[in-house]
Amino acid sequence: MHLPRPKPPRRRDDRIILHFDYDCFYAQVVENRQPALKSLPLGIKQKSILATCNYVARRRGVTKLMGISDAKKICPDLVLVDGEDLSTFRDVSKKLYHLLRSYSWNGKIERLGLDEVFLDVTDIVAYNVELLNPHALDQSFFCLSKLDPELGFSYDATAIAGCTHGSPPPADQRDEDFSMYLRLLAASHLARYLRLKIEEEGYTSACGISSNKVLSKLVGTVNKPRDQTAFLAFREEDIWSFMDAHNLRRIPGIGNRISSVLEAHILAAAPDPNFRSFEATVSAGRVRTHPDMSAPVLEKLLGGPGAEKGIGEKVWCLLHGVDNSPIKAASDIPTQISIEDTYQGLNDMAEIDRQLRLLSASLLRRMYIDLVEEVVENSASPQPSSTKRKRWLAHPKTIRLTTRPYFRADSGKPYNYARVSRSQQLPNFVFSFASAREVLVDKLVDEVLLPMFRGLNPATKDWNVGLLNVCVANMVVVGGENGGIGGGRDIGAMFRRQEDVLREFRVYDDDDGVDGVDEMRVDGTGDDAERDEEDSDAEPWEEDDRDGLECCARCGHLIPGFALIAHERYHDLEPV
Ligand code: DCP
Ligand code: MG
Ligand code: MG
């Protein structure tokens, strides 16, 4: 007997979301600094892998995240440039983000990683669709400002700009489909205009245009590099078949843990704890159409202690291309600043101590960059003069230390996902402008981080540290609207902060960060040398590509854990 199929989740398509992804981002940054590299195959190196490579190299068979020696075998004249220092990438990312932000009316813009931006352009597009004159569509004008009707650009509204996926609604289709089509059309012209603005800064990009984040992000990859795709899907079935064709692991928000649990369920096998790959062996469609699949079943499979609330419903929605998550209004204050590095099993306390000092120095440097501003104060008498004063824009209230043991792929042991974290109140002395930075770093390590480390790792030796992450979070805006720290008494926020602070000694599953457990956002998962929330933690369903480096048993390369399986497959394809 067949059970009735569960109801698919309801779709909202009242928004228009653009998703920008810069082409081979780190490589473009390097090329802009050294234009001679543009015509050569270029790889950006981090430890022993390529963080990315330019499209000249890709045409020669080099891929992102390939091991350096493999890439060199395929393309012996590959030019390698070190990409360990993220500061230039971060600066360019901020510059382009601010450029896009300057076009937003509603301020709803989010960065995802360093090279992606979501822009909710619902309001600008609705305004411009209203302005369309059906008798002169080919001579339309896109207004970029409500206040200045001359600010904008001319466009031909008889056709979509760039590529499309799907087809326009038939002429006799319901009115609302036609209105959606017009909004996508206007948005496609805005997307092209914005991509050209980004190109004026030296950066080409891909853009996806649709009604929610998951669809815009996925459709943007259909035509890349240097192109854009509007998703013309007016029937649920069109959206489902688009989603169904994706490898399960490629759906943003479905990380390794979720993907291996679902895969095991579908294949009626036990989940493989070592499974960490960019690809799953099943498609999203196979999961969605599996006979017993539904939101409650997903909740049963994926829920439990530590899992995100409502994870079953969330994944069920994602599989149907439904994603109602909003694009939050931009803030200049990051929600957390997190610095981390990975190691191949630190066991020497002097070295751990040294690393904690290096991480703390970076953390304080980032706090000064992101959270301190210079105010110019004018005094009228006796002599008119101005003095500069520094002030904190926000005080993080919590400091958190996270560690994870080092994992060796050839150890024969299952992959160890466990991170342990400990949080406590960030002492006020770090906000002192009177003390030298080095003094603050030493005090922070001696009085806070070393005791936290000992609390987390009570053994007296053999710590085998694979990762250290130091993070400050729970930003409290200084001198908010209501005056004073925190801008008034937000009791709810106070409890949330308290809950955060009390969440000590929790053991997390690494993948939870990928799959979107909120507290993992606060924990700052990911293994970049430096990483901060503003740069990389934009959304719970963000893929965290930057996992710990592991040693390939065949060639000895250090490569990210998640890429290990794909890397081994690569060896399998090598000529013997
Ligand atoms: N990156 C990284 N480590 C990863 C993944 C990405 O350091 N595991 C960095 C390098 C990339 C940048 O982030 O340049 C953006 O990642 P993308 O996946 O968008 O890759 P690219 O922009 O390089 O290439 P594409 O043209 O495919 O978008
Ligand atoms: Mg990119
Ligand atoms: Mg990207």
UniProtKB/TrEMBL annotation:
<dbReference type="Pfam" id="PF00817">
    <property type="entry name" value="IMS"/>
</dbReference>
<keyword id="KW-0496">Mitochondrion</keyword>
<dbReference type="GO" id="GO:0005739">
    <property type="term" value="C:mitochondrion"/>
</dbReference>
<dbReference type="InterPro" id="IPR001126">
    <property type="entry name" value="UmuC"/>
</dbReference>
<feature type="compositionally biased region" description="Acidic residues">
    <location>
        <begin position="525"/>
        <end position="545"/>
    </location>
</feature>
<dbReference type="InterPro" id="IPR043128">
    <property type="entry name" value="Rev_trsase/Diguanyl_cyclase"/>
</dbReference>
<protein>
    <submittedName>
        <fullName>DNA/RNA polymerase</fullName>
    </submittedName>
</protein>
<feature type="domain" description="UmuC">
    <location>
        <begin position="17"/>
        <end position="255"/>
    </location>
</feature>
<dbReference type="InterPro" id="IPR036775">
    <property type="entry name" value="DNA_pol_Y-fam_lit_finger_sf"/>
</dbReference>
<dbReference type="GO" id="GO:0006281">
    <property type="term" value="P:DNA repair"/>
</dbReference>
<dbReference type="GO" id="GO:0070987">
    <property type="term" value="P:error-free translesion synthesis"/>
</dbReference>
<feature type="region of interest" description="Disordered">
    <location>
        <begin position="514"/>
        <end position="545"/>
    </location>
</feature>
<dbReference type="InterPro" id="IPR043502">
    <property type="entry name" value="DNA/RNA_pol_sf"/>
</dbReference>
<dbReference type="GO" id="GO:0003887">
    <property type="term" value="F:DNA-directed DNA polymerase activity"/>
</dbReference>
<dbReference type="GO" id="GO:0003684">
    <property type="term" value="F:damaged DNA binding"/>
</dbReference>
